[in-house]
């Protein structure tokens, strides 16, 4: 394409809220055959809310909210918001420590306490009851965190984050173009599969530690031309690694800086719009 055609293409995109860093990015979009999506905040709204508390609800929420008060994770926001809404008295935790992709730990009421996934609470016994309840909630597309204190799991908290209203249509339009879609997430396999089914995504790669997202993209790139769509701090390396990194406008600064494309409207249908523009720019004028 001529420099003028590139300017026209990126200019048109910008008017629609699709910021494309340069003509080279627009050109690479034309070759993409696989689109990989982060889950939280990308496919879903990114405003998780607590739906179920299993166990002694007062105690479970009190301990969890104490732990999460110092965390910046979206799940933490959901838990502290629920505690505030229920007017719980939250003890101040000491020795707070966040464990990437797993959860948080701290001392609450003088006892070691944890909130996170089964990877964090690996050494804990989970009763058959709690185990089956956890599976049930996960199959309902809810993220489940375990709450532990003084060596025992005291309960579960289920947190729901609904897909954006346009995600399903966005995925369908990519499939209509013959592209493959993949979800890449740190969340549990069952939750990931449930959300993927709701929006029609082909493949799921779940339980991925934050540091491993870029490696999964690299692996896909051995056989495919890959776009990665994400919003979080932990998505930045994958956004850089992908043939085309697409960041949500609502995303963290580092995600936006790492993306070759920014979707200002946070609407996944704009991935397809970018593809259409690239095709128009590169297939018409050669
Ligand atoms: P995502 O790919 O959805 O952004 P993360 O890597 O941030 O996932 O987190 C993966 C999983 O780690 C979460 O689904 C949750 O089980 C657990 N986790 C991480 N941070 C926290 C936290 N602050 N509180 C509870 N659980 C957490
Ligand atoms: Mg995210």
Automatic annotation (TrEMBL):
It is found in: Cell membrane. It comes from the Bacteria. Belongs to the cation transport ATPase (P-type) (TC 3.A.3) family. Type IB subfamily. This is P-type Cu(+) transporter. It comes from Lacticaseibacillus sharpeae JCM 1186 = DSM 20505. The chain holds residues 293 to 578 of 634 of the full protein.
């Amino acid at each position: 394409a001529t420099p003028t055609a590139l300017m026209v293409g990126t200019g048109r995109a910008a008017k629609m809220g699709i910021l494309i860093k340069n003509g080279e990015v627009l050109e690479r979009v034309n070759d993409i055959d696989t689109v990989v999506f982060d889950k939280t905040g990308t496919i879903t709204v990114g405003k998780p809310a607590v739906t179920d508390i299993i166990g002694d609800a007062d105690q479970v929420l009190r301990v969890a909210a104490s732990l999460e008060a110092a965390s910046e994770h979206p799940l933490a926001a959901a838990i502290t918001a629920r505690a505030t809404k229920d007017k719980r008295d939250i003890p101040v935790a000491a020795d707070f420590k966040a464990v990437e992709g797993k959860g948080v730990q701290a001392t609450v009421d003088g006892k070691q306490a944890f909130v996170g996934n089964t990877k964090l609470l690996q050494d804990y016994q989970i009763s058959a009851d709690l185990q089956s309840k956890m599976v049930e909630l996960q199959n309902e597309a809810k993220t489940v965190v375990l709450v532990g204190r003084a060596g025992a799991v005291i309960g579960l908290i289920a947190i729901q984050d609904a897909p954006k209203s346009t995600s399903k249509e966005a995925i369908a339009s990519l499939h209509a173009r013959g592209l493959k879609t993949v979800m890449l997430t740190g969340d549990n396999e069952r939750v990931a599969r449930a959300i993927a089914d709701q929006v029609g995504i082909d493949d799921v790669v779940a339980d991925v530690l934050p540091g491993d997202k870029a490696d999964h993209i690299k692996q896909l790139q051995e056989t495919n031309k890959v776009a990665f769509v994400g919003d979080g701090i932990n998505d930045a390396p994958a956004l850089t690694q992908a043939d085309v990194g697409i960041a949500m406008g609502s995303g963290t600064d580092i995600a936006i800086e790492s993306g070759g494309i920014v979707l200002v409207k946070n609407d996944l249908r704009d991935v397809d719009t970018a593809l259409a523009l690239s095709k128009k720019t590169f297939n018409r004028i050669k």
